[in-house]
Amino acid sequence: MRALPPLSGLLIASCLVLSAQAATDASQWLERLDQAELKQSYQGTFVYERSGSFSTHDIWHRASPAGVTERILQLDGSAQEVLRVGGATRCISGNLLQGVNTSPDTSSALSDPLTLMSWYDLKVAGYSRVAGRPAVIITLTPRDPNRYAFELHLDQQTGLPLKSLLLNERGQLLERFQYTRFDPRPPSAEDLSPSADCTALPGGSPPAAQVATAASLGWRPDWLPAGFELTASNVRREAGSHVPVTHLLYSDGLARVSVFLEPVEGEANDARTQLGPTAAVSRRQPTPKGDVMVTVVGEVPLGTAERIALSMHPLEAQARQ
Q1: How far is CA 119 from CA 141, 228, 269, 308, in A?
Q2: Which of 122, 262, 272, 299 is deepest in the core (most CB within 10 A)?
Q3: Which domain holds residue 56?
Q4: What is the pLDDT of residues 94-103, one digit of tens each?
Q5: Cα(189)–Cα(168) distance, integer angstroms
């Protein structure tokens, strides 16, 4: 008769199976979320909280074979809104709070859940009820100190996020999206029509889809958190200025960090600040062609942003070393 394994071995094996199953279930929910934003129409009202600021917004989102049309209207204070069609901003009024004008969903930033599992522990943490609708709670806990944790409450019917929390390493709340009203019915054409105060942008702003290598723009980072890769880049000139600004966008499939590189003359001091989840670090960098202000902005810990800023170097300087 074969001897039975020790009880401790059975318990460990059982925990490993349950952990693997939890990660599998969570990845399946994230795959559903990834598709829902492109296929599911909806409308509702959500609240946005960040660094002590609190605002309420209406949203109308229509998905069709031709693409996604979305309108967001801020209900607090002066009417501020944005209309996007196919990923391009068609009109905007006022200044929506940073983070709101990128839509209260996370799916636009998600990559393959199997890839995310390399940088986050995925787990189905339980169930909740948001805006009167049953939801499943998915947690994404970072495997290193270079990124934040996420808690998503996904609508069980549609897979869309009804609530999203961004948490620091101590579990403290940094940012919240939460619906108070959610209706999975398509909005009307009237709902998607912007107000007269919404200023049209010529041709709409281009979607952030163009990608070049950092090397082709003359810069590269010596260090990035594991999993962060260049996902978009461009060179533009700010309104009223002839100075070109290089923008590099890096992402691990969920968190995003922007690096701005701008030639600078005269006085410009280094700076570092943390506003809620957003870290911003500016560092003056000498180059063979003159000084450049390197600014890193992203929803990552301040130390992560500082290390990225310190690691940015022009290729000319590296070639001489």
Answers
A1: 8, 10, 34, 18
A2: 122
A3: 8-200
A4: 765 444 544 4
A5: 40
